[in-house]
Amino acid sequence: MSNQSQHPFKWRHFQADIILLCVRWYLRYALSYRDLEEIMLERGVHVDYTTIYRWVQQYAPELERRCRPHLLSTTDSWRVDETYIKVKKVWMYLYRAVDSAGNTLDFWLSSRRDGEAAKRFFLKALTASHTSEPRVINVDKNAAYPKGFNELKAEGYIPENCRLRQVKYLNNLIEQDHRFIKRLTKPGMGFVTLEAAWRTLQGFEVMNSIRKGQVQGVDKGDVRGQVALVTTLFGVAV
C-alpha cells in the first residue's frame, strides 16, 4: 500500500476534517466550488475554491475505492441506461445501472455509444464485488446493448439463463436516479478534462450510494451515520 493511501492527508495545510467536510459537501449537494469557498468563509475558514477542486480530484476516487468493500449486495434484476455529461464542451455518455430496489450497481464514462462501450460497462458491473449475478438486464431500444450482451454471454461472463429485455418503461427507476447525478453536475457547467470528469463522477456516485443506504451500517436518511462513515473510512476522528 502506498504512503499516500496510508496517510492520505500528510503534508496538507488544512486539517483532515476540514478537507473531508468540503469534499463530502461538494459530492453530496449541488454546490459550485465558489459556493463552498463562501460557505467555509462563513465558518471562519479561508480556503480558495481552486484548493477545494484539488481536494475533490484527490479524494473523491479514494472515497469510492475505500467505500466499495462495504457496499451491500444488489438484486439480480438490473436496469441499465446512459445519460449525458458534458466534457470539454462535448457530450459524453455516462452508462449507469441500478437494481430493482434502486441501488447503484456501477457506472462508466465513455466517448462512444456503441456495442464496445456497452460491453465494457457490462463487464465492469459484472465484476464488481457487490453485484449479484444478473437474472435479467433491462435496457432501452439502444442496439448497442444486445451486441455487448451477446458477446459477453458467448465469452461466458454472463450466465446462459440471463435475459436481456428491451422495454423502456421498466427503466423509469434508473432514469429517476440519473437526475440526482445530473443535478450535481450542473453547478460546475461541465468538466474541463475527461480525467477530472471521471474523478468527480466517482465521488458523486459513491455519495449517491451512501445517501441511498447502500453501505453496511448506514441507513437511508441517516445523515450523522453518513458523516461518521466517511471520516471512519479515512481514519479521521470527529
TrEMBL record:
Q: What is this protein called?
A: IS6 family transposase
Name a GO molecular-function annotation.
Answer: DNA binding
Question: What's in the keyword line of the UniProt record?
Answer: DNA recombination, DNA-binding, Transposition
Listed InterPro entries: DDE_dom, Integrase_cat-core, IS_Transposase, Transpos_IS6
Any Gene Ontology biological process = DNA recombination
Q: Which residues form the Integrase catalytic domain?
A: 65-228
Which species is this record about?
Ktedonospora formicarum
Which Pfam families did the record assign?
A: DDE_Tnp_IS240
